[in-house]
C-alpha cells in the first residue's frame, strides 16, 4: 500500500459482486470477494471485513483503516485498503449462506483490503533474513506506538509476501481508547509502563528481537516521523464520515498519543532497548 500522502493517492472504492470464499481462520469470518472498481470498473479480489462480523462495527472499521494508513505511512508493508460496498444484488447471492445475516448488517460501506494471493505464514522458529528482522523491529515498535496487543502467538496477524513482512488486522489496536480513566497509564506515552512491557513480551515477533544486537533501532523508528502534520488531515479526509464520531474524540486522542511519541523518539527507542531488548 502507498502512503496516503503520496501525490495523487486515492482510496479505492469497490463494489462486491461475488463471494469466492470465507476465511475461516479469522475471528470475524471475513469473505474473499470479487469486487469491481466503482470508478475504473477493474475487478480484483478483496478481503471484505463486513460490519456485522464479530467485533466489526463503524468504530472498529475506522480503527482498522487508520491502523493501515499509519502502517503504510511508516513504511511497513500492508495490503492495499479499500472501501468495499455491499449492495442488495450482492446480498441476494448470499441468500441461504451462513454469513447472510451478518453480512446483511454490513449493507453499505465496509473495510476491505486487496487479497494477497501469493503469501506464506510466519511461524515460530522460522529463520528471517536480516532485512526481515529489521522489518520485524519496526513492526514491534509500531505496535507499541499504536498500543496493539493483537499480534501474538494466538493471532500473529502477519504474512510473508514479496520477501517482506506484511501486517494486517488493526481493529483491536489503540487499546488505550478502551481503558477507563481509572486504568489509564499515568506515564507519558513514550515511557513504557509495566502493562506495556508485559504485553510486548508476548508479541509474536519478540522472539526474533530479544537480545539481538544487530538491529538498528534508530532506523526502525526513524520513519515514525512521517506521521506528521500532513498525515492527519489527509487520514481524516479519507475516513468515511459514518465511521467517525466526533463526540468521542477518538482520532484526536490517537493523534495526541502518536505525536507525543514521535516528539520523543530517542526516549521511546531507549525504553524499548532497556526494558525489552538488551
Describe it for me?
The chain has about 280 residues and is an alpha+beta fold. It is about 35% helix and about 15% strand. It has 10 helices and 8 strands. The strands form 2 sheets. A 5-stranded mixed β-barrel has the order 1-2-3-5-4. A 3-stranded antiparallel beta sheet has the order 6-7-8.
Shape, principal axes of CA atoms: globular
**Biggest β-sheet: strands ordered side by side in the sheet:** 1-2-3-5-4
How many beta-strand runs? Answer: 8
Q: Pairing-aware structural class of the strands and helices?
A: alpha+beta
Order of helices and strands: EEEHEHHEEHEEHHHHHH
Strand content: 15-25%
- In CATH's first tier, which class of the largest domain applies? Mainly Alpha
| Residue-averaged pLDDT | 95
Question: Main sheet?
Answer: 5 strands, mixed, barrel
Number of helices: 10
- Please give the radius of gyration in angstroms: 19 Å
Question: What's the structural blueprint in terms of helices and strands?
Answer:
Elements: E1 13-22, E2 31-37, E3 43-49, H1 58-73, E4 81-86, H2 88-93, H3 100-105, E5 108-114, E6 120-121, H4 130-145, E7 158-161, E8 164-167, H5 194-200, H6 206-209, H7 217-222, H8 231-238, H9 250-262, H10 265-277
Parallel strand pairs: 1-4
Antiparallel strand pairs: 1-2, 2-3, 3-5, 4-5, 6-7, 7-8
List its salient traits:
2 domains, 278 residues, Phosphatidylinositol 3-kinase Catalytic Subunit, Chain A, Domain 5, five-stranded mixed beta barrel, alpha+beta, three-stranded antiparallel sheet
